[in-house]
Each structure stands twice: as structure tokens, then as C-alpha cells.
Amino acid sequence: MPQSRQLAAIMFTDIVGYTALMGNNEQKAFELLRKNREIQKPIIEQFGGRCIKELGDGIMASFPAVSNAVYAAIKIQEACYNSKAFELRIGIHQGEVVFEDGDIFGDAVNIASRLQALAPPAGIFVSESVHRDLSNKNDIRSEFVRVENLKNVKEPIQVYKIFSTGKETNEAKSQRLIKSSILPEYDYDIHISYRYNDNKYDGWISEFVEKLNQELSATLKDRLSIYFDKNPENKREEFQNNEGSVTPKINSLIFIPIISQTYCDITSPVWKNEFRIFQEEIKKDSFGSKIKLPNGNTASRVIPVKIHDLDTDDVRLLESELSGGMRSIDFIYREDGVNRPLRPVDDEKYVSSVKPMYRNQINKLANAVKEIISGIKLSKSTAVPETIAYQPTARQIVPNVFSTSVSPAIKVRVIDRQRPSIYLAWTSGDIKESREEMAIILQKAGFNVLPSIDCPADDETFKIKVAEEIQKCVCSLHMLSSEFGRRFESDEEISFPQYQFMEAKKKIESAGPDFNVFVWLAPESNKSIKPAQQNFIKYIRNNITRNMMFSNSYGPMQLVDDIRVVIMKQDAKVYDSKDTDIFFIFNQQDEIEAQIIVDELSQEFPVETMNILPEGEDSYREMSTQQIPKSKLAVVYFKYAADWALPFIKQIWKQVGGASSPTPMFLVGEDDPYSNLARNFKAPRVISSIVPKDTIPAEVKKVYSKVN
User: Fold this and answer.
1) How far apart are CA 191 and CA 257, in angstroms?
2) Least confident of 51-60, 252-261, 440-449, 608-617
3) CB 319 within 8 A of CB 325
4) DSSP structure string for 65-104
5) What integer pLDDT is reported at residue 615 of this predicted model?
6) What separation in angstroms does the CA of 580 have from each of 176, 237, 439, 484, 628?
């Protein structure tokens, strides 16, 4: 038979779970094949198609037109559902194929086969070419799923899913019948609420639900049920009875509204019949609006997912509906002049420490769901142990115990460090996700992190919340970027981040050594810093006090480690320190050599010395951090104690402010032994040098003259 080239719609079908069945019950497997032929062949022929061949448990067919193939696929799925014998996956693609000897060949065949493999049980997946040809078919609806790179196909393929208007496929009916796997009295574990137009353009919501389902499957042992109605909001049958009137009930454990620029419309069916109804329903059930988590904190049963930056009025509306506080998980693409949802493909376009990644955000959402489900299970099985009322998401830290050779007569100021609360300041919008990640790291490090909600939209509410939360904390962390941040409506010269820093500074002035402030300039791209932000950063640098630290740490883990060094101590001892020119620190191993150097320096400068004894190193580190700010130059000297000197100066440098230390530091070692030549520490406000023994006094004098 000669070859012929034709444009055709190719359909592949496959029985779900057939391979496993063949291994367990061969006779039943062959019976399914017979039943499959009986269902499919008459329908294929009815719509003008031709069965090309059987491929194991599947069938390959060709149709002269796209609509014929899709109508046939829908009818086949309906017949399979009614037979209750098995489920099919179906894939359809239109393209040029080669007919030869009763078989067909070409890229279209390969693509249709790959689409079939991607389809869910009882689902129909089609390519963009099929989707385009269905645009004038009112009784068929196709919806974008995702972009796929198919094996042996050069270009990415846009995948769409087929729905039959007015009829349910096997997949849709099965989903509607799923009940909550956690509590049988609830219809669903999760309810997805959204505006239809937010899904119409590129299927963002459909892809989001699919990705969330996958992430939940990898995060929880339970198989959670998700209610996601793909119909336009005024046709969602979940909220209509037989007469078409609204049924005021959403019987789900968790509510996830997809907050877009149009969601906060109080006249829309979604707002009235979903968001507001759920808010009313949870006031009546046994759990209420908030769930107590295993760690003693509480979490709202509403988890807002923001896909656009919102107008202030919309934020205020949400805050009022959610009892004055909102904690959203944002899927927003961060770029100047752009306000659109973050997509999975964006993760491949850029890698940045401050820009959000879709993969991370979907993981955060799954973890938030997991926490709520764990809290629900715990409340059903046993009482939650009592915890301190305001302590959010932190485990207890056992303080380090240290020995000291310092006299017991010294003054002691005891600070409660067992469960320290840190005020993590609200940031500018471009690093909101970085703040969320920092909160997670701080919690794992043992801190309570406050505030635990999103930044309020109202100026006065914001000020009240800042005052309330900062009073509960022993320190604050302020993350800065190139953006100045949101400005006050009443005073556009002041930003929200700036206000929080000033309030923390005031607390230092009132609380003294009982409060610490940490400032971190996030290591973002080479993006230019806005003029207002430059002035703010300059102000901070020029107003550093002993209880402040301005950090340029490369990452959040290093920064949190620095904070722990300062905060996580059982006792903070107050020592009698003196104003001096040079503070000379050395280890007992180098006492003889150090004394010769100190004697020579003392002829020209006031010098305070500290001889570190092995059994009291931790105490001497604290003494050093109190003496260094009262000195013009701190010198750490070593000859034989190099293994002590390097870690010691690194810790001290962090504790006195790092790059913002008021006192420069000089690490100086002798060049004998030879191994000392490799010992140096490079950091802002630190000078490091290895020199011959006889030149050390001169080197100290030279550095002193240079920095003063």
C-alpha cells in the first residue's frame, strides 16, 4: 500500500493499572481487554474514526477532525464510568501523519502517546492544536494545565484538559464523591476559592492545585481531598440546590482563597457564597476559626494565597474579615512595574536570594496545611499541653553552661534566655518571602518570632502592633533591601521599615543592655539602592550603639548564628571596664612573650591587658566584648596559641558589632612557628598581620596611628 500524508487527529487510550492487574489476575486482565474493545470500537466508528491498532491495553485511533476525536473521547469516558469496570487515560493531538500498510507514523503519533501518559485517571489531555480547533464548540470546554517538555519532541507542548459542559466525566464524578480523609463529618479537607477569570487566561489556578496536590502527597501521609470547582463562579453547583438558590454551607476543614486584584469584590458570588459563608460556618463548628498547633501556637483555618500585590483598601477589607490579622503565602512575581502571578517556569529563569521561587512557596503552603492537620488530629485525640501564652513557634533552648576563673564578687545581671522572642521587622515588599524564610530559620534555631501576621495596611494599626510585639522581645532583626519600603500616608518621609528601626532604637535607650538590635542588608543582586534607602542605611551606620550590630553576612544561616552568639547565654555579667587606648588580649600559652610587648607599648600608650586562662575562656570573651568598645584599638596577639586566637577573634568581632564595631581590631601573630603564616582573619574593621617578633610593637603602633 503506497504512503499517504494527511492531517489527522490521533487518539491514544490506556487502561489505568492494567500492568499490575495482569500480574495479579491474568484472566480478569484479559476480560478487561475484551470489555475495552466492546466500549471503544463502536464509539470510534460512530464519530468517523478508525482503530489503527491495539497496543497492549491501549488503542490508537485516527479521526478526520479534532471535534470528532474529542466527542469520541468524552463518550468513551462516560461509557467507562457507567460500566464501573476500569478507568482510561486518553491523549489527543492533531498533526500531519504518514499512513502506510494500515499503520500511521509521525511526530503527531508520538505527541498523542505522551499526552495520554500524562493524563490523570478518567482524564483527557490534548495539545494546543486540538484546543484551538475547539474554540467554537460551546459544549466542550478545554482548560490549560501546564507546559511540558515531551521525550523526543523538540519544542515544549502546551497541555490542556477537556471538560464536557453539562456532563461529568469519570474523573469529575470521582472527585466530587471524595470525602475528607481526616474527619468524615467534613466533605473536604481543603476548599480552593478563586475568581474564574484568574484561571481562564493561562490555567494558573489549575496548575497551582495540581502542584499543591503533589506537594501534599510528599509532605503528609494522609491523602487529603481538595475541592476545586472549575466552573464559572455563578455556576458552581456546590453552592446551589435543585431550585438554583444558594446553599449557605462550605463543609471543609481548610479554606484557601486565591487573592487576586479582583477577589476582594464584596458583590461577587465568590466573596458572598464562598469567602463570607466559610467565615460564618467556622464560627459554628467545634474547631472555630483557629486551630491550636502541636507547638502551642494557633493558626487560622483560612490560608490566603496572594497572586497580586493588592490595593490598600483590599488589604484592609481582608484584615477586617480575618479578625484584624492576615498571614498570606505569596505567589507574586517580583519585578519593577510587573504585577502577575509567579509561575513554575520562573524558577528556571533566575536564581536570586531575595526573589521568591514557586517551588519554595508551594512547599511553605503544604507545610502550613500539615501544621493545621496535625493540630486538628491532636485536638481530637488528646489535650494540648499548656504553653506560655504569646510564645509563637519555637522549641526550648537549653543554655550553655560555662566555667569561669573570674571572681564571684562581680556584678551579675540575669536575663531569661530560655525562650527568647525576636522581633522580626516587617520588610519592604520585595523581600517579604526572604523574611518568611528567615522566620523559619530563626524558629529552628529556637527563637519565638514576632509578629506572626502580615504587615497591617492601616498606619495606626501598624504602630499599635509594632509597640505590642516589640515589648515582648529581647532583640529585633531588621532586614533591608534596595527598596525604602511602604511609606506612611500621613508622613511620606518615613517608611514602615524605618519606623520599626526607630522604635527598636528607642527600646535600647529605655531598656539598656536588656535589648539588642540587629540590622542586615540582604545580599541581593547589584540592583541600585534607592536614594531614600541610602539615606536610611547611612543613618543607621552613623548611629550604631553597643547594643546594635550591622551585618553584611552572606546568608541567613550565618546571620542567625551571629545572633545566637549574642543572645543565647544563661547570664550576662557586667564587668568593670575602663577607657583605654589599647586593649591587648593574649592566651596564657604566650604570656611571657606578650608581657615583653605590653611593657614596650605601655611606655607610650595606656594599655589594658587580658590573659585568657583555659578554664575561663567563655567568661573572658564576655569581658572582652565589654572592654573593646571602651578602647581605641583591640589587639589579639598569638605565638603558640594560634588555634585559640583565630576562633576567639571571630567570635569577639561578631559580638561587638562586626562591620559596625565602634573599635577596630588587630590580629597579630609571630612568624615563628612557620605554620602561623597561614593564620589570618579578613573582615571589615579587622587588620590581620604575621610579622617577626621584634617588629610587633612597631606594627601595633603603626596600626594605632592609622585607625586613630
Assistant:
1) 8
2) 608-617
3) yes
4) SHHHHHHHHHHHHHHHHHHTS--EEEEEEEEEEEEETTEE
5) 65
6) 78, 80, 40, 39, 9
Residue 48 contacts residue 64 (beta carbons within 8 Å): yes
Residue 451: asked if its preceding bond is cis (omega within 30°), the reply is yes
Residue with cell 500531519: 96
Please report which helix (H) or strand (E) contains residue 208, including its range.
Answer: helix 204-219
Query: Which amino acid type is present at position 635?
Result: V
Rounded to an integer, what distance in angstroms lies between the CA atom of residue 423 and that of residue 470? 6
Q: Which residues contact 390 (CB under 8 A, 6 or more apart)?
A: 421, 448, 450, 472
Contact between 77 and 15 (Cβ < 8 Å): no
- Cell readout for 492 is 511620606
Closest by Cα among 453, 455, 506, 456 to 476: 506
Listed in sequence order, the DSSP H helices in 666-707 are: 696-707
Tally of domains in the chain: 4
pLDDT at 190: 94
80 plus 140 within the same structural domain: yes
Instruction: Give the H or E element holding residue 147.
Output: strand 140-148
The answer to whether residue 419 scores a pLDDT higher than 80 is no
**541-556 pLDDT, tens per residue?**
888 887 888 887 778 8
| Together in a domain, 429 and 551 | yes
Cell of 672: 615563628
Is the Cβ–Cβ distance between 129 and 93 less than 8 Å? yes
Q: Which residues pair with 431 in a beta bridge?
A: none
Q: Which of 571, 596, 617 is the last residue of a domain?
A: 571
Residue 542 sits in the same domain as residue 592: no
